[in-house]
Amino acid sequence: MTLTQHDIDLEIAAERAAYEKRIAGGAPVEHQPRRDYAPYRSSVLRHPKQPPVTIDVGTDPELVELASPAFGERDVTETDNDLTRQHTGEPIGERITVSGRLLDRAGRPVRGQLIEIWQANSAGRYAHRREQHDAPLDPNFTGVGRTLTDDTGSYRFTTIQPGPYPWRQHLNAWRPAHIHFSLFGTAFTQRLVTQMYFPGDPLFPHDPIIQSVTDDAARQRLVATYDHALSVPEFSMGYHWDIVLDGPHATWIEEGR
Amino acid sequence: MTKIDTARPETVLPTPSHTVGPFYGHALPFPGGGDIAPLGHPETVTLHGYVYDGEGRPLPDAFLELWGADPEGRLSRVDGSMRRDPAGGGYLGRNGVEFTGWGRVQTDADGHWSARTLRPGARGRSAPYLSVCVFARGLLVHLFTRIYFPEDTAAHAADPLLSRLDEARRATLVARGGGGGGGGGKDAYRFDVRLQGEGETVFLEFR
Ligand SMILES: [Fe+3]
Question: Domain residue spans in chain B?
């Protein structure tokens, strides 16, 4: 039997109902996706079945995980945050500016940390050699960027609006347009890899990856806000996306205990 | 929604994690990602292993980040893990002298990874270890684990994490092989990650 979008939609609805039941029963809000989210089939054999072992970072300030690797000006070149200027020609597609702040759980800016992004081109094709989607490659777009957050925790990228793409998990499976983000905080415990989406995408209800975040409010935090003030006249559309790193870190402990 | 009002701390909630997906190979790996040890350093250790799924199949699309202290137990604050060429835009690689403590390695088509770093010294109450963060297609949230070294048996007995685990689970965090007592790095250490099932690696959460 071919696995259809309808099958996956039913599984997504069942997972949502199960979450709502847990919440109604007094369970805590789930800010993170479930590791074992079967509608996303790749998770089935790749999630641990044992609960994680908890380490209370307050008991030992010397933990390796309470520090983070350092990145600096040597690791990033000046034009790395402009994905439209990495080749001799202009990439095809709608230019966008994506900007926001990197924050910790207390709302403080996370300064001088590395942000890496990668994405498909405007046709929904990655410049990745194993990519099988036969949409056109763009010789003027690799879809990879890097930057360091500034003193206010802010970042800014200029890129091309990525296209949605089919991914073959089930018949007619399409990923909503997204930009992948990799982030470092002041502690390795804050490490985050995630995806940013665009407002109002009609594919949201059908995509098991975004739906793996079953909490509505948490899922909304993955969606950027259109920001006309960020749009550059005669050049690009603007999107604002603030990112909050989870996980304890050293200053958090100093102030919290 | 995604403009966060930091004046209202109750609205500052974590951005959810998402899978790294299958298509990061043109973006995240970089040349020399696993060559963390400065060239010719006498405390260099080679680490390698496989990442397996719940059916014991190796993952060809996972990557690991390693983060650890230097042999004196100090954490590096030096950048330059992924030095770039300001002229051409490509990678220069590490400078071969400084130790950043951090590296990123992909599994190959056989699910195998390897890295060379410095044998870490102990910090605080813990036995020497490297922190490991595992990413892969199918992992909606990355997984933290640790690599301890087999020669440090006395320190393992006092380690706040290892001493809480039963024998079988503890063994998943200790590399095999190595220098056979000297820790001089003559031989490679083997460390496999089992995401699920028999011999499942101990994964950690930090609070
Ligand atoms: Fe993607």
Answer: 19-194
